[in-house]
Amino acid sequence: MESPSLNTTSGSLSPTKSNTISGDERKTDYDNAAEKESGKLSPEMHEPAAKPHGVQLTLIMTAVLMTQFLVSLDQTIVATAIPRITDEFHGLDKVSWYGSAYFMTFSGTLPCWGKALIYFRLKWIFLLALFIFEVGSLICAVAPNAETLIVGRAIAGVGCSGVGTGAFLVVALAAEPRRRAQLIGLLISTYGIGAVCGPLIGGGFTATVSWRWCFYINLPVGGLAALFTVLSFNIHVEPLKASFKEKVLQLDLVGAAVLMGGIIAFILALQYGGQTMAWNSSTVIGLLVGFVLIFAAFLLWEAFQKERAMMILRLCAQRAIWVGSTFQFLYGASYFIGLYYLPIYFQSVRNVSPSESGIRNLPLVLSFGISSITGGLALSKFGHAVPMMAVGSSLATVACGLFYTLDASTTTGQWIGFQILAGVGWGVCWQCTMAIAQEGQEPADLPSITSIVLLFQILGGAFGISIAQCAFNNTMIEHVISSLPGIDPSLILGTGATEIRTVFKAQEIFAIVSAYIAGLRVVWGLMVGFAGCAFFVGLMSHWKRLYQHEGANSGTQHMA
């Protein structure tokens, strides 16, 4: 997850500003004065005079590191468990919801949490987010059916959004300026460790105990983190001054609700289309038309909200931001599709256990983690973001094309090499668009800019997984109808990904596995399209060297 860039050398928590924007992109002093008067423009938030140290700082850092680990773990641990979940709940038709419900609420509430953390008491908002995440995890763990699991994932996404955002602000407030960059780097490293451990832990739990422990594990860890926060976080930071009404309006809860409503309409249309209903049915057409109308209503509402909006349109109109957001949407779609569908390939086509599937995903997550850190260091040193975006997206495009060749006979060296290439490609791009979008902006705008760019990355995951699931299911249906005319395609879709060899006859397995391969090839093709489009979009960004007006340590300020 990307985070706001913080000034790590001054005594202020205002975001770093490198040089001012010019022309019509810059607001006038009159506009700023008017917005401050109405409470719409966030003033500078100052650090507390007394900093924690010793045991207190250790407990605070332990708490936020634990929560950051859980946030990262929750985004990847489910992937290797999905095939086994489809076994228990008997079907592939709701796979997209397990990821999309989480990403939908994560992205939809992200800007709301960002504002809540500075307009209300930080400690209690952070604990509230952690509590919501724990409730969502508990619902997932005890879910008796797919629908309950989806609701739990949606609730967990709301909490994760606040916990992930709040962790960076807590560290910024708790750390001395000279140590802040170091501790934020530790926070980012913990996120990377969680991403690596997710498939391994998820596969291990699923194979040896139950997939439900992928969610139960969040309860004791999150509870301990909450206890440490209550006992140690006694930093006195005054929330930004505004009336309660203004604080609530700043959250733009209506905008978040409208955005999530549009996403739900789109996902439902893809879930029904070609599977339970014809594409030309009134329900599917109505949902697609509804999605367009809801999205239009969202834009109108955001225009009406102006500086209170979760997506401030004057910022979205800047090339650096709309190009970066579009790139992140395409990037997020290709990355999260791969993260969710590679375990299905390993467990259904290659017939390996969930734990073995997690091990086989290591080339992807390790190469992604290493290349994202290396890419961040290279970006801070050389400042050339667009070439890195071009190289990364082109490598990812080639890797996704190589995924298209995956079948039951692919060699170990091939699937390892393909994943390493993809991980390097995705990792190199991890921070580039955020750095470009933040460059030269007004300090008060940086939290909103960060939220917008990250919002589109998560939305890419939600939309990408849904589109991939629709294409996967429809392709499987067509393949089964042509190769196994005596079998109802809904029976295959209603069978878990790892159950096909126990439910169907031996002479039917080959055709069913072939249907899986055919469906997955359409998924890999979508990943090629998303990554390839990201390459061309990235070329439209600003070709300028970043940080050239900053000091030697400025790069670390933008790497978070």
How would you characterize the largest beta sheet?
none
Give the N-to-C terminal Cα separation. Answer: 9 Å
User: How many strand units?
Assistant: 0
Ranges where pLDDT stays below 50 over 5 or more residues in a row are 1-43, 550-560
Shape: globular
Tell me the number of structural domains: 3
CATH topology of the largest domain: Growth Hormone, Chain: A
Proportion of beta-strand residues = under 5%
- CATH homology superfamily name of the largest domain: MFS general substrate transporter like domains
Helix content: over 70%
CATH architecture of the largest domain: Up-down Bundle
Mean pLDDT: 80
Radius of gyration: 23 Å
Topology of this protein?
Elements: H1 29-38, H2 54-76, H3 82-89, H4 95-119, H5 122-142, H6 146-174, H7 177-208, H8 213-216, H9 218-232, H10 244-251, H11 253-272, H12 282-305, H13 313-316, H14 319-349, H15 354-360, H16 362-382, H17 385-403, H18 412-428, H19 432-438, H20 446-483, H21 489-493, H22 500-503, H23 506-538, H24 554-558
